[in-house]
Specification:
The chain has helices at 27-38, 50-57, 74-82, 111-127, 162-186, 211-224, 229-232, 234-241, 272-286; strands spanning 18-22, 42-47, 64-68, 88-93, 131-138, 192-196, 249-251, 261-262. The protein has 296 residues and is an alpha/beta fold. α4 packs parallel to α5, α4 crosses α9 (272-286) and α5 crosses α9 (272-286). The longest helix is centred in the middle third of the chain and has 25 residues, at 162-186.
């Protein structure tokens, strides 16, 4: 099988750099951590299950570290950030959940938006004083089925629809990426905010899907999913290491992992008014804000 046009061995030398990858104990996160570590980075696996995280870290080359982080618990997020010191070059907001029924986080948020968006929102804002290069937030092609309901972000009043909830959280990732990058730019910060999505990659994310949806997903993977989860991590690795402008959105080049490419955003993915209102609501819900606030 021919190598893809761009693949992990082409990563730049990351020796001396520090990266954090959330949800690095399985799937795309584990692959992302592996390749960043292979490129020489001091790679921190930020995971809810530290035993699984250590099992992955033990297989990785170079300097790795496992730290506890539960994005569904803001106390855990604050503890992780409070324990950080020293420069952090790259933060990869990779972790995600795809719920089947409406569940809530420790803080009472609907689990998809609570983990996928609000947890990463808080983590990024709390770590931002240490970040020197970029933040990469992993979204999904399913953002296109999402709709940001600012009056009912946590699905307390609407009939719960799991895939729509997931889509909303992934759309929130894109709007967060955009608004964060705007704030960083206005404040004069050199830090960039970017987004990536893996395409259709067979990962443990949807392991809880059952019934018709689960069966359909499994069947569909045989035909449309990228053949190896490794290829699904290529857009994230590309966004994390290539010299790209802020607010770039990177997706896969094809089923065989060809050159990752810039994705065109829909109007809903990049509406500045919705992005700012979502930011304000996220500040109110998490009690965190970017240190750049005064400048914007």
């Amino acid at each position: 099988m021919a190598q893809p046009l761009w693949y992990p061995p082409t990563l730049p030398d990351l020796t001396g750099r520090t990266v954090v990858v959330t949800g690095a104990n399985s799937g795309l996160g584990a692959v992302t951590a592996r390749e960043l570590a292979r490129a020489g980075a001091h790679t921190v696996l930020a995971v809810r299950d530290t035993a699984k995280g250590r099992a992955v870290a033990d297989t990785l080359p170079g300097r790795t570290e496992v730290r506890a982080l539960d994005l569904g618990d803001l106390d855990s997020v604050r503890a992780f950030a409070g324990g950080w010191s020293g420069p952090l070059d790259i933060l990869v907001n990779n972790a995600g959940v795809m719920p089947v029924t409406r569940e809530t986080t420790a803080d009472g948020f609907e689990s998809a938006v609570g983990v996928n968006h609000l947890g990463h929102f808080a983590l990024t804002n709390l770590l931002l004083p240490y970040i020197t290069d970029r933040i990469v937030t992993v979204s999904s092609g399913l953002a296109r089925i999402g709709h940001i309901d600012l009056a009912d972000l946590n699905w307390e009043h609407r009939a719960y629809r799991p895939m729509r909830a997931y889509g909303q959280s992934k759309l929130a990732n894109l709007l967060f990426t955009q608004e964060l990058d705007r704030r960083l730019t206005v404040s004069g910060s050199p830090v960039r905010s970017l987004a990536a999505h893996p395409g259709v990659a067979a990962t443990p994310l949807d392991r809880h899907l059952t019934g018709f949806v689960g069966a359909s997903t499994t069947f569909g993977y045989r035909f449309i999913a990228q053949k190896k989860v490794d290829y699904g991590a290529l857009p994230t690795l590309f966004a994390a290491t290539e010299d790209l402008p802020g607010n770039t959105y990177i997706g896969p080049g094809g089923r065989s992992g060809e050159l990752p490419r810039t994705e065109k955003r829909r109007k809903a993915d990049s509406d500045p008014g919705t992005a700012r209102r979502l930011w304000d609501l996220s500040v109110a819900l998490t009690g965190t804000d970017a240190p750049t606030e005064a400048a914007v």
